[in-house]
C-alpha cells in the first residue's frame, strides 16, 4: 500500500502529464493531424514526431505552388520530414503541395515557386493574405531562365537563390576561417592578402610533385549559353604551343575517369593535374557552382569562367580568371606555374587560413534548414519586403 505522500506525488505527476499532452495537441491542432495522415498516408510514428515538434513552437506552413517532384522541391520532403531528417535547428516547418490542406491557400505562411517553372506559369494564387510571404526559389542560373517581362515586379517578398542578395542563400558551398566560423561567400569579403598568408609546408609542396599534366576538364554539357566550348578550343590551340595538353573527360571529350567513380576522378585530378577548368555553363551574377570545388578540394588551381565577381568566393592570387585574361596571357601564366614549383605552391597559401565545405555538410549552412530558420526569425518575417523591380534584379543585362 502506497504511503499518503507517495499518493500525492503520483497524483501531481499524472496531472502534469495530462497538461503536457493537452498542450501538444492544442498547439498542433488535432484536426490537421488526422487530415495529414489521411492525405499523405503518413505513419503513426511520423504523426507523433510531428506533434512533438509542433509543441516546441508554432508551426510554419509552406505551400509548394509548383511541382514537388522537380528540383529544388524534390529534396525538400513533405511535412516536417526533411527538417527532422537533416537535424535542422528548427523543425517546426511543414511542407505540402496540397493547396487545400488548410482549406485555402491564403492561410499558408509561405508560398514557394520554383523559378524555372514560375517564369512560364500563369496559374498563380488568386487570394493573398497580408501575412504571407511569396518566395521565388531556384538553384538554376538566371541566364538560362530569365523572366523577360514585368509580370513579377512587386510580386515576390523573398528570394531563395544562389544570388548573394537573396534573403535565403542557396549556394553550392560555404567558406570557413581557421576557427571554423562561416565567413562567406558574401558581397563584401575581407580576405587576408596572399603575401600575409602563411606559406605551405614542405610536405605539402612535395605532394604537388606527382603532377605531370597541365589541365583537365570534366564536362557533360557540350553546348552552353556561356559558349565556354569555343574558349576551350582557343585554349587548346594556345596550350599546344607550349607542349601542354588539355584533357577533357565526359560526354564532351575522349577520356573517362577510372571506373567512372567520383572518388577516382578526384584522385586522378589531385595526383595528375596542375589546373582545372571551372567553367560555368552560363554567365550570371554570383552563379558559382560545385565546379569550383573540384579544384579547391583536390589541390588543383582553378581557372574560372563565368559571370560572377570571383573575389566574393576566393582570395586574389589563388586562381586564374579566363574572362579577365586573354588566352595568350592565361596560358603564359599556366606555364609559369608548371615550370616554377615555388610559384605554383603560392596558389595554395589560402589552405592555412580558409576551408571550403559543401552546403549540406552542416545544418547551419544547409539551404533547407536555413529556410526554416528564417521562418522562425520574427524580425525578418514581420518586415515588409517586396521585389518591386524583380525583372531588373533577376534577369542578366541584355538577356531578353
From TrEMBL:
Judging by the UniProt lineage, the source's domain of life is Eukaryota
Which InterPro entries does the record match to this protein? Glyco_tran_10_C (IPR055270), Glyco_tran_10_N (IPR031481), Glyco_trans_10 (IPR001503), GT10-like_C_sf (IPR038577)
Q: How does it sit in the membrane?
A: Single-pass type II membrane protein
Which key words tag this protein in UniProt?
Glycoprotein, Glycosyltransferase, Golgi apparatus, Membrane, Signal, Signal-anchor, Transferase, Transmembrane, Transmembrane helix
User: Coiled coil where?
Assistant: none
Alphabetized Gene3D superfamilies for the sequence:
Glycosyl transferase family 10, C-terminal domain
Cellular localisation = Golgi apparatus, Golgi stack membrane
- State what protein this is by name: Fucosyltransferase
Amino acid at each position: 500500500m502506497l504511503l499518503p505522500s507517495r499518493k500525492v506525488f503520483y497524483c501531481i505527476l499524472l496531472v502534469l502529464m495530462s497538461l503536457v499532452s493537452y498542450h501538444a495537441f492544442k498547439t498542433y491542432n488535432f484536426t490537421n493531424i488526422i487530415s495529414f495522415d489521411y492525405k499523405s498516408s503518413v505513419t503513426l510514428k511520423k504523426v507523433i514526431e510531428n506533434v512533438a515538434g509542433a509543441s516546441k513552437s508554432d508551426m510554419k506552413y509552406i505551400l509548394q505552388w509548383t511541382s514537388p517532384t522537380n528540383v529544388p522541391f524534390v529534396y525538400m520532403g513533405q511535412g516536417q520530414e526533411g527538417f527532422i531528417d537533416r537535424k535542422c535547428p528548427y523543425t517546426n516547418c511543414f511542407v505540402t503541395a496540397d493547396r487545400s490542406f488548410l482549406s485555402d491557400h491564403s492561410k499558408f505562411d509561405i508560398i514557394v515557386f520554383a523559378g524555372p517553372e514560375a517564369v512560364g506559369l500563369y496559374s498563380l494564387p488568386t487570394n493573398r493574405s497580408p501575412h504571407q510571404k511569396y518566395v521565388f526559389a531556384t538553384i538554376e542560373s538566371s541566364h538560362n531562365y530569365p523572366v523577360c517581362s514585368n509580370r513579377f515586379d512587386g510580386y515576390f517578398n523573398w528570394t531563395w537563390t544562389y544570388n548573394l542578395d537573396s534573403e535565403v542563400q542557396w549556394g553550392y558551398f560555404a567558406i570557413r576561417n581557421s576557427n571554423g566560423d562561416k565567413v562567406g561567400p558574401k558581397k563584401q569579403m575581407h580576405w587576408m592578402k596572399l603575401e600575409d598568408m602563411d606559406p605551405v609546408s614542405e610536405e605539402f609542396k612535395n605532394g604537388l610533385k606527382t603532377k605531370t599534366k597541365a589541365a583537365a576538364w570534366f564536362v557533360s554539357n557540350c553546348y552552353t549559353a556561356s559558349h565556354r566550348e569555343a574558349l576551350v578550343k582557343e585554349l587548346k590551340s594556345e596550350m599546344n604551343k607550349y607542349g601542354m595538353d588539355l584533357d577533357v573527360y565526359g560526354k564532351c571529350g575522349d577520356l573517362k575517369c577510372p571506373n567512372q567513380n567520383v572518388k577516382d576522378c578526384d584522385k586522378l585530378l589531385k595526383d595528375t593535374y596542375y589546373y582545372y577548368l571551372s567553367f560555368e555553363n552560363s554567365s550570371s551574377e554570383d552563379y558559382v557552382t560545385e565546379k569550383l570545388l573540384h579544384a579547391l578540394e583536390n589541390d588543383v588551381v582553378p581557372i574560372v569562367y563565368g559571370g560572377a565577381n570571383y573575389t566574393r568566393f576566393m582570395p586574389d592570387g589563388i586562381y586564374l580568371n579566363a574572362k579577365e585574361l586573354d588566352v595568350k596571357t592565361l596560358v603564359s601564366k599556366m606555364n609559369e606555374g608548371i615550370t616554377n614549383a615555388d610559384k605554383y605552391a603560392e596558389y595554395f597559401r589560402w589552405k592555412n587560413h580558409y576551408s571550403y565545405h559543401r552546403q549540406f555538410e552542416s545544418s547551419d549552412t544547409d539551404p533547407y534548414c536555413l529556410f526554416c530558420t528564417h521562418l522562425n526569425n520574427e524580425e525578418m518575417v514581420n518586415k515588409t519586403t517586396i521585389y518591386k523591380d524583380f525583372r531588373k534584379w533577376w534577369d542578366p543585362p541584355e538577356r531578353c
